[in-house]
Amino acid sequence: NEAFDHASKQQMDFLWLSDHHNSITPAEYDGCVATANKHNKPGTFVTGCGYEKGIFKGAEHASAWVGHFNVLFPNKLYKLSHNSPGIFQDIAECAECLGQFNHPPNPANFDGYEYRAAGKDKVRLMEFNGGPWVDKLPWFFKALDNGWTISPAWNEDNHHKRWGDDPQGTLIWA
User: Fold this and answer.
1) Are 105 and 129 in contact (CB under 8 A)?
2) Would you call 68 exposed, middle or buried from its count of C-beta atoms within 10 A (0-12, 13-18, 19+)?
3) Which has more confidence, 71 or 55?
4) Is the pLDDT of residue 92 over 80?
5) Rounded distance, CA 101 to CA 171, Å?
6) Proportion of the chain in helix, strand, coil states, percent, rounded to 5
7) Which residues does 116 contact at the CB level (< 8 Å), separation at least 6?
8) What pLDDT sits at residue 143?
9) Global confidence as pTM
């Protein structure tokens, strides 16, 4: 409630909460969705939930990072692969989901943004926050050159209780 109330008072048009996948339970995620639905006012203030997943080269925490990945619009907390290419197959099988590469190059760059056909129709965004955007451009263009069809997104990715106070944000042109 607190996040959606705060963002609404900031006169934001939309707010999507995206917690770390390994930090929430299915019941907590369902609670986020229920709260988002309660605050949703179509045409005025649109709300929703998603989650960020850490991706590794092998088993979780047993190998090097590949990157952080956001899953947007899921209707439940899906069991997701801990590795690449598994995450792309998982999101391809989620009809309502949309994927976003998060804050390159930290903690990594998805193996140079190697193209994965399974993610072709689902991975559409690359988050540009977490440092100077000029540091993100080479990775964005690398992903485009490799065949990804993505758009930049500026998300807060905050870890505080000032949702919507940051001047960086995502614009949706619909």
Assistant:
1) no
2) buried
3) 71
4) yes
5) 17
6) 30, 25, 45
7) 84, 85, 88
8) 96
9) 0.86
